Amino acid sequence: MFGQMLKALRTAKGLTQQDIANYLGVTPEAVGNWERGTREPDLATLLKLAKYFDVAVHYLLTGTDDPNRRPPWPEEWEPAVLTLVSQGYSPEEVLEAVRLYRVLQKELPDLPHLTKPLDQ
């Protein structure tokens, strides 16, 4: 899904793989590999791409219909969420974990470990 989304965003803006490669400091071959799905970028690169195209990382990963729709977690959680996705959890599993975290915060607000941000 990521490769399809990257290619769609790139071509919609009339950019070449070389343009994206120049921005990221990688080779055009790397961009082509991402678009074909034979390789995946690291987390830092994924964040840069989302910022470059002004879309949510969630959109790049899942291909939601609205590129401006933000994920259901706070922006500061993005690195932790991306870490989970890079470890093999699906976006749906991460979303379920976020839902559970919010339920626990609501139902058990006095537990100290639930008052800390997700990435600590």
Automatic annotation (TrEMBL):
On the tree of life, the source organism's domain of life is Bacteria
Write down the InterPro entries for this protein, in alphabetical order: Cro/C1-type_HTH, Lambda_DNA-bd_dom_sf
One Pfam family named in its UniProt record: HTH_3
Task: Output one GO MF annotation.
Answer: DNA binding
Question: Residues in domain HTH cro/C1-type?
Answer: 6-60
Sorted UniProt keywords: DNA-binding
Q: What's the name of the protein?
A: HTH cro/C1-type domain-containing protein
Question: Which species does this protein come from?
Answer: Caldinitratiruptor microaerophilus
